[in-house]
Amino acid sequence: xxxxxxxxxxxxxxxxxxxxxxxxxxxxxxxxxxxxxxxxxxxxxxxxxxxxxxxxxxxxxxxxxxxxxxxxxxxxxxxxxxxxxxxxxxxxxxxxxxxxxxxxxxxxxxxxxxxxxxxxxxxxxxxxxxxxxxxxxxxxxxxxxxxxxxxxxxxxxxxxxxxxxxxxxxxxxxxxxxxxxxxxxxxxxxxxxxxxxxxxxxxxxxxxxxxxxxxxxxxxxxxxxxxxxxxxxxxxxxxxxxxxxxxxxxxxxxxxxxxxxxxxxxxxxxxxxxxxxxxxxxxxxxxxxxxxxxxxxxxxxxxxxxxxxxxxxxxxxxxxxxxxxxxxxxxxxxxxxxxxxxxxxxxxxxxxxxxxxxxxxxxxxxxxxxxxxxxxxxxxxxxxxxxxxxxxxxxxxxxxxxxxxxxxxxxxxxx
Length: 415
Known about the structure:
16 strands, Beta-lactamase
């Protein structure tokens, strides 16, 4: 029988969301899906626009930032299934720009020293963040590179760094260290080169349409009718705990780069539909198989188990923020829990007490978003917000409440 949310758990979640809205602060959307793709909980609370007070709706469209990465991973593995690319051949075969990539050996705000990488980058490295790239908000070498390459550190520079990524050097020798960076943007480019399609078109033809999803896009050039459902981006001032509306930080019409690492817009329900595919061995709620069961099983294995330097995957590792304007907190993933990395997402490799089971997947997005898929418990969940920088307290509190309620005794039932 399908897993459902108990009435007591539903009541507790309702109470948490009833208490969530605060004047002058943005709202949130919380959702839970089961293996069969049923939305066993989906509710919005609070304001879509913290300044005007416009109400957030369940079908609000969010820019989902790095939650895009998991869908890019699915796309890449579809191509692997078809034999069009392998996980361990050099991706420079399809993306020649990566044949002569360089590695930063030292830097200051005004100087940069590099050497040529010795190891070819593979698709497996891209999907596991072991290619050698970093993000400027977690790596001072990349922050220095940004400063030296006419990419402002604030404002539009946030997006310039990602949209002009073809020049960005590595910070580690490929295959030697886990470090969070623009790897999945290159995975998206690889999907484009192998498939011959723009990434958003590939998503539509091979993931969204087969699953019955029609509101998920990198840009809205063909669907301007959806713009009215789009959440604005909020700017959070941590010192005063106030929120304003910032210019929407990415192009919405005819976006030149469909970034596999963070460019997609979608709704909570549509994203949960994709999450259910991971729970149900590659099968969507409508019965369509978009990945083979053995592919999904392989994606949930720890592909960083034998990496030389686990970096932020260490049990007690903390990745320090180098730019509070983008990441207001350090990156500490599942503190005290043994971790690994599957093919495009974080894994806890042991059960979390009173929480998810071993080899559950999760990740999030810099605009304070979170997703999780627990195949053993047969549930997935999301918390979606549209706030920068990352790390505002209400998001972390809601994410913690959600998991506490769902995994409490009697939180999930089979009916």
